[in-house]
Amino acid sequence: MSTQARAEARSPIEEPGASYQRKRTTRGNFELYSWVFMRASGVVLVLLIFGHLFVNLVAGEGIKAVDFGFVAGKWASPFWQIWDLLMLWLAMIHGTNGVRTIINDYAERDGTRLVLKLALYTAFVVVVVLGTLVIFTFDPCPPNSPANLLPSFCTA
């Protein structure tokens, strides 16, 4: 192998006096914003979850009072619908971002990484769409339902 071929095969680190330059990626800002989002959403999630637990378990009669009627009464208020929606969305985005990072760190092949991320994003969309629909379309007393199928607090 000639001297010139050996010099071309060397990495910049092996070159005397050469400085190592990292390849620039376009994901730099996205990863920074993802990192900041994880910290901010984690703090907000802690507040939302402890508020949720306090209202559901401590402020009332405890776990024995949480039933269909309790949820129906809670979701009759737009405040609690938004609270639970925010908790759902933040938890799902936070968790999806965390799992995305784990996939990027541990999946070695591009094909494997693609399949895992597609499964992750599909699960994310399904849970967020269904959860949002449940929160906003929940009706404990649907019209024209047989009286024997309705909860006791519904007027037939």
TrEMBL record:
Pathway(s) served: Carbohydrate metabolism; tricarboxylic acid cycle
Membrane-topology annotation of the record: Multi-pass membrane protein
GO cellular component: plasma membrane
The organism's place on the tree of life at top rank: Bacteria
Known function: Membrane-anchoring subunit of succinate dehydrogenase (SDH).
PANTHER family named in the record: SUCCINATE DEHYDROGENASE HYDROPHOBIC MEMBRANE ANCHOR SUBUNIT
Keywords: Cell inner membrane, Cell membrane, Electron transport, Heme, Iron, Membrane, Metal-binding, Transmembrane, Transmembrane helix, Transport, Tricarboxylic acid cycle
SUPFAM superfamilies the record matches: Fumarate reductase respiratory complex transmembrane subunits
Transmembrane regions listed in the UniProt entry: 32-55, 75-93, 114-138
UniProt protein name: Succinate dehydrogenase hydrophobic membrane anchor subunit
Region (Disordered): 1-20
Gene Ontology BP, a term: tricarboxylic acid cycle
GO MF term list: electron transfer activity; heme binding; metal ion binding
Entry cofactors: heme
Cellular compartment(s): Cell inner membrane
